[in-house]
Structure prediction request, 187 residues.
Amino acid sequence: MTLKLLVAGGFGVGKTTMVGSVSEVPPLHTEEALTAASASVDDLTGVEKKTTTTVALDFGRITINPELILYLFGTPGQDRFWFMWDELAVGALGAVILADTRRLESCFPAVDFFERRGVPFVVGVNCFDDAYRYGTEEVRDALELDRGIPVLLCDAREKESTKQVLITLIEHVMGTKKTLTSAYRLS
Prediction:
């Protein structure tokens, strides 16, 4: 059995890094250099050192056991590539929305996208070295998230941190599916 999970969020939040930190195979990246032509389109505020961007997707794989494999798909962050999200979301079990507290507003479109489609998600707050560390409840309140949506602090560069975010997502999806199944049986 294979499970499809998405890693989404705004431009420069660490989606490519997260997929790469945990994939057991060399991850597929569709990174391209930022150009002068994109300077007027891509807001580099808070990520001035960024030199590349995902233009289609990132892909990684994790084998849990011979019968269970996770496929991770990282979405592009800029709004001009959001048309890809609809395609990537087909068949997805759930999503990690990666957030950067220096530019928290950049993850609102991802929250809206998954809420509108009923795709379960968790929020991973990528703790950048130069960013103020807000607590998870402060981030939850700022994003106006339901109390049932897990919010975790993480470091997308670290395999163990990424694994914990993915474990929390799977547990959240399982809890969401059980709740939906119970509600369906009661109606």
